[in-house]
Amino acid sequence: MRCLKTVVALRRYLELVRSGQGLGASIAGDRALPSPTPAPPVPRLGLVPTMGALHPGHLSLMERARRENEVVVVSIFVNPLQFSPQEDFGNYPQDRQRDLDLCEQQGVDLVFAPSVEEFYGLTGLGAGLTDQLTQVIPPLGLTQGLCGRSRPTHFQGVTTVVTKLLSLVQPDRAYFGQKDAQQLVILRHLVRDLNLPTQLVGCPIVREPSGLALSSRNAYLSPDQRHQATVLSRALGAAQGQFRRGERSGAALLATVQQVLATEPGVVVEYAEVVDPDTLTPLDSLGDQGLLALAAQVGPARLIDNVVLRQRHPIVALDGPAGAGKSTVTRRVAAALGLLYLDTGAMYRAVTWLMLDQGLDLADEPGVAEVLSQSEIRLEPGTLDPAAPWDLPPVRVWVNGQEVTAAIRTPEVTARVSRIAAQAAVRSALVQQQRRYGKTGGIVAEGRDIGTTVFPDAEVKIFLTASIQERARRRQQDLINQGQGTVDLGQLEAEIGERDRQDSSRSVSPLIKAPDALELLTDGLTIEAVTDRIVALYRDRVADLTP
Ligand SMILES: Nc1ncnc2c1ncn2[C@@H]1O[C@H](COP(=O)(O)OP(=O)(O)OP(=O)(O)O)[C@@H](O)[C@H]1O
Ligand SMILES: CC(C)(CO)[C@@H](O)C(=O)[O-]
Ligand code: BAL
Question: The Cytidylate kinase domain covers which part of the protein (predicted)?
Answer without folding.
Answer: 316-538
